[in-house]
Amino acid sequence: MESTNMDFNVSKAKDLMEVYKKNKSWAKIKFLRELISFNDNFQSRSILGAKLVLESGYSNKTINSVISDLGYTVTYISKKRNYDSFGYFKNETSIISFNN
Fold this sequence. Notes:
- By secondary structure, this protein is an alpha+beta fold.
- It has helices at 10-22, 26-42, 60-69; strands spanning 52-53, 73-83, 89-99.
- A three-stranded antiparallel sheet has the order 1-3-2, covered by helices on one side.
- A hairpin with a 5-residue loop joins strand 2 and strand 3.
- The relative contact order is 0.18.
């Protein structure tokens, strides 16, 4: 059963994911999967307008492209560098927000 949070269009995201699969756009597919997962975790609340800390660091081009393909507008993009306990670079995450 599909999520009832209708601010974020999950069926459109899944359709778009199929297009990305045909084009072998793996970063876009991974990003869409994270958005769908966030939507499921938010249950009846909207992910629109919320600042989402993503598990991976995506390029601004990938984020802007996917969000615009979904029909939304990016309102905030930031990157956060994560370090381990010894101070060595571990990974980078993206923080985003988007609206209608």
